[in-house]
Amino acid sequence: MLQNNYSYSYVVRGADLFDSNSESYTFFKVMDNVIVERKHYSYSMYGSGYETKCYPSKENCEYLKRIEEIRKSDSEKAKEALKNHLEEHYTPIFKKNFYNCWEEYEEFVGAHKRFGSAPRTIDDLYHDCRSYQAESEKNNDYIFEYKVSEDGVLCECYLKNELLMDAQVLKGVSILSVDF
User: Which of 33, 73, 102, 144 is most buried per CB count within 10 Å?
Assistant: First the structure.
């Protein structure tokens, strides 16, 4: 599945299961199948009508590359540009309050344990989805759901418990974009 010597970047959207007004994005950069960057942005949002879209492959590639170039010389400007990009393209009708933002590089990837998606390669995420499916086949109360893009790239994969209110998600992943 992977090309370019296993080098790519991707964005994962997360949500707090206990606070529906909270959401986060974690950006990953992978070189030679090793995660070399992980950036996390959490925020609170207020309003209604939020719609999640699946952005496979190169939807936001050029803009994110420009932000990365800015970060090399001015990290504060890059943070503001990324925040504006998220507001414009991912949650245009919400007012957000960023409350937990950090970046990790090289050997420090994985240092933040409490917030952000765990450091996982795309191969790891596909493996996780296969295990969610196997788990759902063993337990009749579990529901396995997944969604792929038109390109065949994984967008969402969830394991839900139908006995919980609104078949609450137990674990899963939501990939917004992948750039090979």
Answer: 144
| Global pTM value | 0.66
Range of the domain at 33: 4-179
Q: What sign has the CA pseudo-torsion 20, 95, 49, 92? A: negative
Beta-bridge mates of residue 157: 146, 173
- From the centroid of its chain, how far is CA 35? 14
* CA dist., res. 106 & res. 121, Å (int): 14
Distance (Å, whole) CA 138 – CA 132: 10
Pairing mode of beta strands 19-31, 154-161: unpaired
Q: Count structural domains, the chain.
A: 1
Instruction: Enumerate residues 6+ apart whose C-beta is below 8 A from 104.
Output: 37, 38, 39, 110, 111, 112
Please name every residue paired with 13 in a beta bridge, in sequence order, or none if there are none.
Answer: 25
Per-residue pLDDT of the chain in tens (180 residues, 90 and over written 9) = 445 568 999 999 875 544 555 678 899 999 999 999 999 887 765 533 333 333 333 344 456 666 667 767 777 777 677 666 665 554 433 445 556 778 899 999 988 887 788 999 999 999 999 999 999 999 999 999 999 988 888 899 999 888 877 767 888 888 988 888
Contact 163, 135 (CB under 8 A): no
